[in-house]
């Protein structure tokens, strides 16, 4: 898969973001997307081929692998990257709508189509909420699917068609565990950044509205 579209999307949204939002874009692009492409993808590349059990019973190894790895870590991570980035499209579409509306009416309808205010502010806040929700959902999903954020050296399997309890070994468990912890840490950092930006914008525009009302009342 080409990640160029996701890179262009994040770069495009960057000019509409606050300072905190730009830090979020940098974290996603450098510490998540580039790490995924450059390193993590190769670690799980031969995940199925390197999964070994101490028995050659036909079908046993396949069943055990499917039981302990219902969804590949790397595919789930890729889906997470896509899902937490796509809410930014809401902002891009809203700005494009503003620009197209001005072009259609051939007049200036907004002070700046790219300035975060009014309905665009609501769209931006919704995108932040969606990104945070997706991050939390995927962290819970990772925890549920893999019984925590651990990658064991040895797993025991007694599922049919295995004739008895067999030992299965996961390749490079320590390396995979390190990258899994890195994934969790960067996800948590992104959640903190999203909540910080959400709080900042709500506080900023609440103060702005309050001062505006106070000024009108005083006048």
Automatic annotation (TrEMBL):
Residue ranges of domain Connexin N-terminal in the record: 42-75
Keyword Transmembrane helix recorded: yes
One GO term (biological process): cell-cell signaling
Location of the Connexin cysteine-rich domain: 134-201
PROSITE patterns documented for this protein: CONNEXINS_2
Matching Pfam families: Connexin
Membrane topology: Multi-pass membrane protein
GO cellular component: connexin complex
Gene Ontology molecular functions: gap junction channel activity
Swiss-Prot/TrEMBL keywords: Cell junction, Cell membrane, Gap junction, Membrane, Transmembrane, Transmembrane helix
Compartment list: Cell junction, Gap junction; Cell membrane
Transmembrane domains' residue ranges: 21-39, 77-97, 118-142, 178-203
Family as reported in the entry's similarity comment: Belongs to the connexin family.
Subunit structure: A connexon is composed of a hexamer of connexins.
General function of this protein: One gap junction consists of a cluster of closely packed pairs of transmembrane channels, the connexons, through which materials of low MW diffuse from one cell to a neighboring cell.
Name this polypeptide is given: Gap junction protein
